[in-house]
Amino acid sequence: MKTNLTGLHHITAISSDVKRNMQFYTQVLGLRFVKKSVNQDDTGTYHLYYGNYTGAPGTALTFFPWAGLPRGRPGTGQSYATAFSVPVDSLAFWGERLSRLKITTFPVETRFADQVLPFSDHDGLRLELVATTEGDPRPPTPSAEIPAEHAIRGFHSSTLALQSVDPTVAVLTGPMGYRLVAESGHRARYTVADGGPSTYVDLLTDPALPRGLNGAGTIHHVAFRTPDDAAQVTARQVLLQDSLQVSPVIDRAYFKSIYYREPGGVLFEIATDQPGFAIDEPVETLGTKLSLPPHLESHRAEIEAALPRIN
Ligand code: ZN
Asked: Cα(220) to centroid of ligand 1, in Å?
Protein backbone atom coordinates (compact mmCIF):
# COMPACT_ATOMS: atom_id res chain seq x y z
CA MET A 1 0.00 0.00 0.00
CA LYS A 2 1.15 3.51 -0.76
CA THR A 3 -0.08 6.98 0.06
CA ASN A 4 -1.20 8.95 -2.96
CA LEU A 5 -0.32 12.54 -2.13
CA THR A 6 -0.23 15.07 -4.97
CA GLY A 7 1.08 18.19 -3.23
CA LEU A 8 -0.08 20.89 -0.83
CA HIS A 9 -3.86 21.19 -0.25
CA HIS A 10 -4.25 24.15 2.13
CA ILE A 11 -2.24 25.80 4.88
CA THR A 12 -3.87 27.12 8.04
CA ALA A 13 -2.46 29.96 10.12
CA ILE A 14 -3.37 31.94 13.23
CA SER A 15 -4.06 35.66 13.11
CA SER A 16 -5.17 38.39 15.46
CA ASP A 17 -7.43 41.15 14.10
CA VAL A 18 -9.87 39.68 11.60
CA LYS A 19 -10.50 42.81 9.54
CA ARG A 20 -6.82 43.48 8.96
CA ASN A 21 -6.44 39.84 8.01
CA MET A 22 -9.18 40.09 5.38
CA GLN A 23 -7.89 43.37 4.04
CA PHE A 24 -4.34 42.04 3.68
CA TYR A 25 -5.11 38.79 1.90
CA THR A 26 -7.87 40.04 -0.39
CA GLN A 27 -6.73 43.57 -1.19
CA VAL A 28 -2.95 43.57 -0.76
CA LEU A 29 -2.29 40.06 -2.11
CA GLY A 30 -5.36 39.86 -4.36
CA LEU A 31 -6.52 36.45 -3.20
CA ARG A 32 -10.21 35.63 -3.34
CA PHE A 33 -12.15 35.26 -0.10
CA VAL A 34 -13.63 31.87 -0.94
CA LYS A 35 -15.19 30.75 2.31
CA LYS A 36 -16.42 32.33 5.51
CA SER A 37 -16.92 29.52 7.99
CA VAL A 38 -16.20 28.72 11.62
CA ASN A 39 -13.55 26.68 13.37
CA GLN A 40 -15.47 23.42 13.76
CA ASP A 41 -13.69 22.75 17.05
CA ASP A 42 -14.39 26.28 18.40
CA THR A 43 -17.47 27.76 16.70
CA GLY A 44 -16.96 31.19 18.31
CA THR A 45 -14.00 31.63 15.97
CA TYR A 46 -14.07 32.16 12.23
CA HIS A 47 -12.30 29.96 9.75
CA LEU A 48 -11.51 32.17 6.76
CA TYR A 49 -10.21 30.83 3.45
CA TYR A 50 -8.32 32.84 0.80
CA GLY A 51 -7.42 31.21 -2.49
CA ASN A 52 -7.81 31.41 -6.23
CA TYR A 53 -11.20 31.91 -7.91
CA THR A 54 -12.55 28.50 -6.88
CA GLY A 55 -10.28 27.93 -3.90
CA ALA A 56 -8.75 24.98 -5.74
CA PRO A 57 -6.55 22.60 -3.74
CA GLY A 58 -3.04 24.04 -3.62
CA THR A 59 -4.21 27.66 -3.40
CA ALA A 60 -5.98 28.24 -0.08
CA LEU A 61 -4.32 29.90 2.89
CA THR A 62 -6.79 29.78 5.76
CA PHE A 63 -6.94 31.49 9.14
CA PHE A 64 -8.29 31.12 12.62
CA PRO A 65 -8.47 34.76 13.78
CA TRP A 66 -8.48 35.46 17.52
CA ALA A 67 -8.82 39.17 18.38
CA GLY A 68 -6.05 40.40 20.65
CA LEU A 69 -4.08 37.14 20.51
CA PRO A 70 -0.40 37.82 21.23
CA ARG A 71 2.13 37.11 18.53
CA GLY A 72 3.85 33.78 18.45
CA ARG A 73 7.41 33.32 17.26
CA PRO A 74 8.19 31.63 13.95
CA GLY A 75 10.91 29.06 14.48
CA THR A 76 11.76 25.39 14.68
CA GLY A 77 9.02 22.82 15.07
CA GLN A 78 6.77 24.86 12.79
CA SER A 79 6.00 25.53 9.18
CA TYR A 80 8.23 28.59 9.11
CA ALA A 81 7.27 30.24 5.81
CA THR A 82 4.55 29.92 3.20
CA ALA A 83 5.50 30.66 -0.39
CA PHE A 84 3.17 31.64 -3.23
CA SER A 85 4.00 31.14 -6.89
CA VAL A 86 4.12 34.18 -9.19
CA PRO A 87 5.33 34.51 -12.79
CA VAL A 88 9.07 34.82 -13.33
CA ASP A 89 9.25 38.57 -13.98
CA SER A 90 6.82 39.69 -11.27
CA LEU A 91 9.01 40.55 -8.29
CA ALA A 92 9.60 44.17 -9.32
CA PHE A 93 5.84 44.72 -9.45
CA TRP A 94 5.34 43.09 -6.06
CA GLY A 95 8.33 44.78 -4.42
CA GLU A 96 7.02 48.18 -5.45
CA ARG A 97 3.45 47.34 -4.45
CA LEU A 98 4.31 45.95 -1.02
CA SER A 99 6.61 48.86 -0.16
CA ARG A 100 4.01 51.41 -1.33
CA LEU A 101 1.45 49.72 0.92
CA LYS A 102 3.96 49.81 3.83
CA ILE A 103 4.19 46.03 4.10
CA THR A 104 7.32 44.63 5.78
CA THR A 105 9.57 43.09 3.13
CA PHE A 106 13.03 41.51 3.33
CA PRO A 107 15.79 41.47 0.69
CA VAL A 108 15.16 39.34 -2.40
CA GLU A 109 17.08 36.06 -2.22
CA THR A 110 18.08 33.51 -4.81
CA ARG A 111 16.82 30.06 -3.88
CA PHE A 112 17.78 27.22 -6.19
CA ALA A 113 16.90 28.65 -9.65
CA ASP A 114 14.35 31.19 -8.44
CA GLN A 115 14.21 34.71 -7.04
CA VAL A 116 12.26 34.90 -3.79
CA LEU A 117 10.74 37.98 -2.14
CA PRO A 118 10.13 37.40 1.60
CA PHE A 119 7.62 39.57 3.44
CA SER A 120 5.29 39.35 6.40
CA ASP A 121 1.71 40.20 7.25
CA HIS A 122 0.53 42.43 10.12
CA ASP A 123 0.91 39.54 12.59
CA GLY A 124 4.45 38.70 11.46
CA LEU A 125 3.40 35.60 9.49
CA ARG A 126 6.30 34.84 7.18
CA LEU A 127 5.29 34.80 3.52
CA GLU A 128 7.24 34.60 0.28
CA LEU A 129 6.65 35.19 -3.40
CA VAL A 130 8.61 32.81 -5.59
CA ALA A 131 9.12 33.99 -9.16
CA THR A 132 9.18 30.49 -10.51
CA THR A 133 11.44 29.71 -13.45
CA GLU A 134 9.61 26.41 -13.88
CA GLY A 135 6.42 27.97 -15.15
CA ASP A 136 3.09 27.50 -13.43
CA PRO A 137 0.12 26.65 -15.66
CA ARG A 138 -2.49 27.47 -13.01
CA PRO A 139 -4.82 30.40 -13.78
CA PRO A 140 -4.16 33.76 -12.08
CA THR A 141 -6.51 34.81 -9.30
CA PRO A 142 -8.66 37.62 -10.76
CA SER A 143 -8.17 40.87 -8.85
CA ALA A 144 -9.15 44.50 -9.34
CA GLU A 145 -5.69 45.82 -8.47
CA ILE A 146 -3.26 43.15 -9.58
CA PRO A 147 -2.72 42.53 -13.29
CA ALA A 148 -3.16 38.90 -14.31
CA GLU A 149 0.45 38.69 -15.52
CA HIS A 150 1.68 39.22 -11.94
CA ALA A 151 -1.10 37.60 -9.94
CA ILE A 152 -0.55 34.79 -7.47
CA ARG A 153 -1.15 31.31 -8.93
CA GLY A 154 -1.38 29.43 -5.65
CA PHE A 155 1.13 27.92 -3.27
CA HIS A 156 4.70 27.31 -4.32
CA SER A 157 6.02 25.64 -1.17
CA SER A 158 5.94 25.33 2.57
CA THR A 159 9.21 25.61 4.47
CA LEU A 160 9.43 23.63 7.70
CA ALA A 161 12.02 24.74 10.25
CA LEU A 162 13.49 21.82 12.18
CA GLN A 163 15.98 21.27 14.96
CA SER A 164 16.87 17.87 13.59
CA VAL A 165 15.97 16.90 10.07
CA ASP A 166 16.34 13.11 9.88
CA PRO A 167 13.10 12.01 11.63
CA THR A 168 11.04 14.35 9.42
CA VAL A 169 12.84 13.16 6.28
CA ALA A 170 12.02 9.58 7.24
CA VAL A 171 8.29 10.33 7.36
CA LEU A 172 8.29 12.57 4.31
CA THR A 173 10.22 10.17 2.08
CA GLY A 174 8.79 7.02 3.67
CA PRO A 175 5.03 6.79 4.10
CA MET A 176 4.34 10.18 2.49
CA GLY A 177 6.14 9.31 -0.75
CA TYR A 178 8.12 12.56 -1.10
CA ARG A 179 11.57 12.64 -2.76
CA LEU A 180 14.58 14.95 -2.50
CA VAL A 181 15.03 17.28 -5.50
CA ALA A 182 17.64 19.83 -4.41
CA GLU A 183 19.83 20.85 -1.49
CA SER A 184 21.65 24.08 -0.74
CA GLY A 185 23.09 25.25 2.56
CA HIS A 186 20.61 24.65 5.37
CA ARG A 187 17.73 23.99 2.94
CA ALA A 188 16.62 20.75 1.28
CA ARG A 189 13.68 20.61 -1.13
CA TYR A 190 11.33 17.68 -1.46
CA THR A 191 8.56 17.04 -3.95
CA VAL A 192 5.91 14.45 -4.71
CA ALA A 193 3.89 13.20 -7.68
CA ASP A 194 4.46 15.33 -10.80
CA GLY A 195 6.48 17.97 -8.93
CA GLY A 196 6.42 21.69 -9.62
CA PRO A 197 4.94 24.66 -7.76
CA SER A 198 2.41 23.65 -5.07
CA THR A 199 4.12 20.33 -4.37
CA TYR A 200 7.29 21.49 -2.61
CA VAL A 201 8.19 21.06 1.02
CA ASP A 202 11.50 22.64 2.03
CA LEU A 203 13.24 21.52 5.20
CA LEU A 204 15.30 24.22 6.85
CA THR A 205 17.81 23.32 9.57
CA ASP A 206 19.37 26.69 10.31
CA PRO A 207 20.99 26.60 13.79
CA ALA A 208 20.36 30.35 14.08
CA LEU A 209 16.58 29.85 14.21
CA PRO A 210 14.88 29.97 17.60
CA ARG A 211 12.37 27.42 18.78
CA GLY A 212 8.95 28.34 17.43
CA LEU A 213 6.16 29.47 19.75
CA ASN A 214 2.52 29.28 18.73
CA GLY A 215 0.48 32.46 18.54
CA ALA A 216 -0.67 35.05 16.04
CA GLY A 217 1.48 35.05 12.94
CA THR A 218 2.36 31.37 13.02
CA ILE A 219 1.18 28.36 11.04
CA HIS A 220 -1.26 25.98 12.69
CA HIS A 221 -0.98 23.10 10.22
CA VAL A 222 -0.04 22.11 6.68
CA ALA A 223 -2.48 20.00 4.64
CA PHE A 224 -1.52 17.71 1.77
CA ARG A 225 -3.77 16.65 -1.11
CA THR A 226 -5.12 13.22 -1.78
CA PRO A 227 -7.60 12.61 -4.61
CA ASP A 228 -10.48 10.87 -2.88
CA ASP A 229 -11.85 9.09 0.17
CA ALA A 230 -10.37 5.69 -0.74
CA ALA A 231 -6.88 7.15 -1.21
CA GLN A 232 -7.21 8.89 2.14
CA VAL A 233 -8.14 5.66 3.93
CA THR A 234 -5.11 3.98 2.35
CA ALA A 235 -2.87 6.88 3.38
CA ARG A 236 -4.16 6.58 6.94
CA GLN A 237 -3.33 2.86 7.03
CA VAL A 238 0.17 3.47 5.66
CA LEU A 239 0.84 6.16 8.29
CA LEU A 240 -0.48 3.96 11.10
CA GLN A 241 1.79 1.12 9.95
CA ASP A 242 4.67 3.57 10.25
CA SER A 243 3.73 4.05 13.93
CA LEU A 244 2.41 7.57 13.50
CA GLN A 245 -0.59 8.59 15.58
CA VAL A 246 -3.28 9.52 13.08
CA SER A 247 -6.75 10.92 13.79
CA PRO A 248 -9.85 9.24 12.44
CA VAL A 249 -11.28 10.66 9.20
CA ILE A 250 -13.10 13.91 10.01
CA ASP A 251 -15.64 15.41 7.59
CA ARG A 252 -14.80 19.11 7.18
CA ALA A 253 -17.67 19.65 4.69
CA TYR A 254 -15.37 20.95 1.90
CA PHE A 255 -12.95 18.03 2.24
CA LYS A 256 -12.34 15.10 4.54
CA SER A 257 -9.31 15.25 6.79
CA ILE A 258 -6.91 13.17 8.83
CA TYR A 259 -4.29 14.70 11.12
CA TYR A 260 -0.94 13.59 12.50
CA ARG A 261 2.12 15.31 13.94
CA GLU A 262 5.37 14.68 12.12
CA PRO A 263 8.36 13.98 14.41
CA GLY A 264 9.78 17.50 14.03
CA GLY A 265 6.64 18.93 15.65
CA VAL A 266 4.63 20.21 12.67
CA LEU A 267 0.95 19.26 12.52
CA PHE A 268 0.16 17.67 9.16
CA GLU A 269 -3.23 17.00 7.60
CA ILE A 270 -4.19 14.96 4.57
CA ALA A 271 -7.30 16.38 2.87
CA THR A 272 -9.34 15.13 -0.07
CA ASP A 273 -9.68 17.17 -3.27
CA GLN A 274 -13.44 16.68 -3.19
CA PRO A 275 -16.06 18.03 -2.73
CA GLY A 276 -14.56 21.55 -2.62
CA PHE A 277 -15.92 24.97 -1.70
CA ALA A 278 -18.82 25.07 -4.16
CA ILE A 279 -20.69 22.36 -2.25
CA ASP A 280 -22.78 24.87 -0.27
CA GLU A 281 -22.77 28.09 -2.32
CA PRO A 282 -22.32 28.98 -6.00
CA VAL A 283 -18.78 29.61 -7.25
CA GLU A 284 -19.81 33.14 -8.27
CA THR A 285 -20.72 34.13 -4.69
CA LEU A 286 -18.19 32.13 -2.66
CA GLY A 287 -17.39 33.71 0.68
CA THR A 288 -20.36 36.09 0.83
CA LYS A 289 -22.37 34.28 3.49
CA LEU A 290 -21.47 32.40 6.65
CA SER A 291 -21.15 28.76 5.61
CA LEU A 292 -21.76 26.15 8.28
CA PRO A 293 -21.37 22.40 7.98
CA PRO A 294 -24.73 20.57 8.13
CA HIS A 295 -24.28 19.46 11.76
CA LEU A 296 -23.95 23.11 12.88
CA GLU A 297 -26.75 24.54 10.71
CA SER A 298 -29.38 24.14 13.45
CA HIS A 299 -27.23 26.42 15.68
CA ARG A 300 -26.80 29.12 13.01
CA ALA A 301 -28.55 31.90 14.94
CA GLU A 302 -26.41 31.51 18.09
CA ILE A 303 -23.20 31.04 16.11
CA GLU A 304 -23.81 34.14 13.98
CA ALA A 305 -24.70 36.22 17.04
CA ALA A 306 -21.44 35.29 18.78
CA LEU A 307 -19.13 36.10 15.83
CA PRO A 308 -17.74 39.60 15.16
CA ARG A 309 -19.14 41.28 12.05
CA ILE A 310 -16.58 41.43 9.27
CA ASN A 311 -18.36 42.30 6.02
ZN1 ZN B 1 -6.74 22.07 7.63
From this structure: 8
